[in-house]
Amino acid sequence: MKISxxxxxxIALLAFTTACVFTQLQALAADTGQKKLVVGFSQVGAxxxxxxxxxxxxxxxxxxxxxxxxxxxxxxxxxxxxKAIRSFIAQGVDVIAFSPVVETGFEPVLQExxxxxxxxxxxxxxxxxxxxxxxxxxxxxxFVEEGRRAANALAKLTGxxxxxxxxxxxxxxxxxxxxxKGFEEVLAKxxxxxxxxxxxxxxxxxxxxEVMEAFxxxxxxxxxxxxxxxxxxxxxxxIQAMEEAGIKPGQDIKIVSIDGVRGAFEAMKDGKLNVTVExxxxxxPQLFDLVEKVANxxxxxxxxxxxxxxxxxxxxxxxxxxxQY
Length: 325
Ligand code: GYE
What we know:
The protein has about 325 residues and is an alpha/beta fold. Helices cover about 50% and strands about 20% of the residues.
């Protein structure tokens, strides 16, 4: 009798201890869970093929590294982005990363982040601020160089004689401002190349088509023999507009755009687009390398540039299967 009661007591004790250990283990697991790096990311929107690839790269890389990513889509509106950043500050995230829709107007919210002691990393697009300490680092392409590459390609295609229609990206955005700057810098060397029409297509295919339709209705529409689109999506929209107007894209009008998305390679393969200047959207791995270093208070360079190339029709068929976006 006595023995069995001792036995029962020990079983109960063992069960109790096991339960305690289990609870402790659970607590420990929850604790390690809490130590996950928390990153707030405010994305521009979903305006282009480039952006879709960029979002996918960021989300999958965060997941791979076990980062708690708070992702917010600004739908191309700065006010949404400012709200998202404020909410990241309120949530007390470890690092804020964002791709600014436009260059100016972020200073006040960045000061709030600074006051809260939350470091900010810029991804893809830059901001203009009077105090450079408002962000730690900027990872992204050299948009001015992309603009130069586009102009050089168009000069080659047209023998330096071009009446250019220009589809500009989102007004006030870093890529629109810088691509135009680089493009015009090269154009200055070619007296017979000039921009005769220029309007924003907001980096979307639909707007690119709409603006190209308007260009083609202008009194001097027949003079256009070249198109510079600040991204592939707008060029693809413009190609549709040209075809509907009975114009042969890539032949009657030479076309150069920027990004290097799959759709551009397909259009080049079909001879409808002449050149795409690459702008790499797969920033996830490089971005989180920087974010983790910043969170660990390690030194990072103020500017990190992504590696890119230029592709033409002759390379399209061979390159297409290798494209990741
Ligand atoms: O070229 C365009 C996108 O900021 C580099 O944004 C990015 C640009 C890209 O909408 O397609």
